[in-house]
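User: Can you predict the 3D structure for this chain?
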Amino acid sequence: MVMNYPQQLPWMKINDFLLYIESLSDSKNFSMQVIQKLHTLIPYDRFSVFYVDSNGKLNDATIMGADEGWIERYFDYYSKLEQGNYSLLEKLNDGSSSKIKVKSRDWTESKPNEFITDFIRPQGIKHSVGMMLHDVNDYSCIVFTLERTKLSKYHASDIDTLSIVQPHIENLYRKVLENGPKISKKDKYAKLRDVLTKREVEIAGLLCDGMTPRMISGKLYLSLSTTYKHIANIHTKLDVSNRQELILKLIEMKDGIYQQS
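Assistant: Here is the predicted structure, written as structure tokens:
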């Protein structure tokens, strides 16, 4: 179905954005480069990027302009309110065959409830828009949220613009994953064995299972800061620059990880 978009959309900016993302050739910092460039199309006051695995479990989150504690409280409690009505994935993907990949919310017009009163308003969030990317297997892999605390609400033109660029970003993301470096299972196993300590291998395996750093801390009876230090060491040893790339690499290495734990 051909979509008829209004002529007043920022077509030159959209074109510049698409040319820019086409220059991205690897998974390192992919999401950060995309969301930073998105600001030229759709200004925001703060953002969050969430990485989920094939089971829909949160692997990691990158945020700008918000306290990490709010994110932890969201996933531990608020996302489960009202039968998951405010779940990040539920808001963008209703489970139907036609997946919603872009959605906006005007929180100033929302009826007050526990989520609005205790989570949204204390952070000063007035408007938000979300975008979801799926990998080649159509799993939910990355969710972007752009939030406004001072700027005016998102208009229909903003949503149309995001809807136009979303499939291009998604296709590029899939291409980036498919064209990543191919390493044999034997080499992957040897690399983990050579560079990671026993504890790091254990933590890597738990990350592959979709556990968050806080969950890992509780399971292994480690302080959260110690867990983060181990994860940072894994980053360095496996030559990755963020946990998005780390998770992708560890999922490929999963067999080797579990043989070592």
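The longest strand covers residues 140-148. The chain has two domains: 11-178, 185-260.
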